[in-house]
Each structure stands twice: as C-alpha cells, then as structure tokens.
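Now for our specimen.

. . .
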Amino acid sequence: MKMKNKHIQQMRFKKRAKVGLLFFSITVLVLPNYIIIDYQKRRSVSETEKIAELELPAERKLASVNPKNSSNFKNELETLYPKCEEIWTKSASYVTVWSAIQNRNHVLRSLTNNYATFPTCEEYFRKRKYLYTPNAITEDEKNFPIAFSLLVYHNFDQLEQLLMSVYRKNNFYCLHVDNSAHWQFRYQVAKLSRCFPENVFVAYNSVDVIYGELSMLMAELVCIEELLRFSQKWKYVINLTGEELPLMTNLELVTVLRQLNGSNVIDGPSSQLHYDRYPQKLPWNLRKYQSSTHFVLSYDACSWMYNKGKKVVADLLTSLEPLSFQEEAFFAILQFNEQLKFPGGLKVNIDDDRHADLLSSVSTEGTFNRYKKWNYEDPKKCASGRTQRNICMIGVNTLPELITSSYGRQLFINKFPWNFQPRAWDCILAWNFDKVKKEELTGRPALNHYSFLNNERLKYSRNWGEENN
C-alpha cells in the first residue's frame, strides 16, 4: 500500500468512504438475491469496455497453459536452486551469501519493455511454459479449487511472478487494480488476465486504496463479491498483496485447507486492542476484536456476508466507517463473536475463563496465516536488517528461517519489496518450483505433517470438531 499526504487523505476519504460504504450497503442489501445469476455475461461486457478503454487488441484466444516442455536445458530457476539451497542450509561460503545480498537483478527476465508492452499470450507461454506446471493436477487439487484475491497497484513483474507461483487452471483469481494505479500498469494487468480468461479476471469495480482507510477493506470486499459471482466451485478465498509469495505449493495448500473442514483462518485476536479504531459501542452487542489484514475464508463464510449476515455486515461497516484500519477489525469481529454463528468462526466465547488455553495460544503461537515479523524497535534485529512500516523485510539472510522453521507452519510470506535483495525472492521461487517438480513425480505433497494444523484456535472453530476430533 502507498502512503499519501495525511491532509489530502482526510479530504478525499470522507467523500470516497461514504460513496464506497453506500455502494457496499446496496450490494449486501439488494444484490444477494441475484448472486446465483450467470456472471459470465456481465464479465464479458465489462471486459469489452475495459479493452476498448485501454485500446487492447481484440484477440482473446486461450493459449495452452500446460504445454509439453521438450527442452532438455535447465531453466533459470533450476540453475539457481543449488546456490539457494546452500544459503538456507547455511553451507554457503561468506562470498556466496554476500554476492547474493549485493545482487540487484532478478533471475527471471521481464517480459515487458520500457514502453509497457506485453507479449501475445502464445509468446508469453512460450517464454514461461516450464513454470506453468504440473502437466497433470492431482485429483485432490481438481476437487478443491481455491480462490485468490490480489490487491495490486504497481510492479507488474512482481505480480506476474506471484500469479505464476500460485496459478492452477482449476483455481480462481480476482485482480483488484488500485483505481489510481498508472495506466501502463493497468494495461499490463489487463493483458495478462486475458491469457487466462477462464479463471483470472480484473475486478470490475475498482477502489482508490489508501493505507489505513476504509478503502482497503472495500477493495477486499469487491473481490470477494466478484469471486462469489464468478464461480460457486471454490472452497476458500485467500487474500494476497503483490509483495507476498507462498510457503506452500498448491497441493500443500489443498492438503492443509481440506483438513480445516470449513474453518476460517483469521489471526489473533490481538492482545493489544487499539481502542481509537473502534466506536464506543458496536451494533448487535458485538465485542471488539482486532486481527491482521490477512484472511483465509471459506466459501460459506463469504456467502453468509451477502445473505444471512448482510444486515450485520452493513451495520458493522457503518459503525467502523469514520475510523481507521477497518480491515483489521471487520473480519476479526465476525470471526470471534460466537453469537453470530459466522460459518467457520469460533464456536465459543474467547473471553471465557474456561478457554484460557485459547487465549494463551494467541500470545505464544502468534500468526499462523503469514510469516510476518513486526519490529518497532531496532531494524537491525531483523535478519535482513531492514523494515518497512515496522515489518521486517525479507532478505537473503531470512531464507534459513523461512525454509527450516516456517515451512509447514505458515502459508505465505509477507513483505517482499521488489528491489530489496532480489535474490531472496528468486530463491523462494526456485524452491517452490523444485517442490512442484517433485510433486509431479510422486503425486503427493512434500511434508507428511503440517504444524499449521496444530494451532489451538482451530479446535475451537465451527465445523472443526465434526471430522477432526
């Protein structure tokens, strides 16, 4: 997210937030009755309008995303992998590690040029064909589609590689492009999405996202709504930003999410509640909770917000609208107020003394959705030695911790600035690529057990006990 002058934010926010809130209120109160309608027809119209606006070519032929790779030479990621493995196993020499830290170029070459062009879909897949694997998706993956909401506004190359790392032809992807993003970026994203017309789309409604304001939450809700309309097949939705990469392959995500049995993954609640971000009293006698901006929500939970829970959602948004960082409160309030019976939410009162183990797990286990380290004191305490908005940036020296202790425990990695130690990003890509290649041979995920599933919060979630106790 980008920072803007505070005075300008306040002036623009009042108008934009009211318009956005009105739009969403209308949506949750009226549109749910039409949520089953054929969305493909609306999408074809909206994309035609966007293509005309951006003066894109009319060609919309779907290129094969799984072409056979007959070449015997090693690709860039395979060539890079051995040096990366030396780094995270701490067997690399000082010279190797220092060279990786000083490197300023990403290993995968950009597919665009200074004029912001994008190749045809056929040319794109020809250059990236070895990365769109596996050639055969497992039955588990076929039967468990995942939806992704990606909020992006710059660094097209980073978005392209992120999409590449999480893409599977049976999943669904909503790309929310910030309404104030540069036209060249919007052009490139539109072109990229048209190479995957069956399951990747640019959100029709776009919000001008400003850090800390209601617009952040509204952008997430836009993608959730459009994903609900686009398909009823997906099981979970995961929200991502452009500066994240997966710690698990798609097969590993499916393996983990299937065992959730419909339970949501919402970090927290935070033990340090920022009361200035809440009204004096919430509607519906809701208790105040705070979490992070990251979520994994079941299809039923998302559908509930637009159907059975639409009045709760509308009232909650109205009460939070004048404040800040609403996305850190909104989903946490739904998840942890057990009286709402939010699908996949907690089924007990988290503040009850009888569930002291649940509260203690929040403070000891921390986040289990993202690898994300906060540092408010000394940036040098971060492995990379740098922070961004008090979050440790991912660097080369972070790799050992990511691969050895966070793998299997958390789903995604947060805070990968594109131009900071690019080799760290490249090594995670190479590692994921290597895991996927091995999955093709074995047909099963790399790990036998994921400590992610040991979190105390899960056993108190709705539906969790039905199959897992």
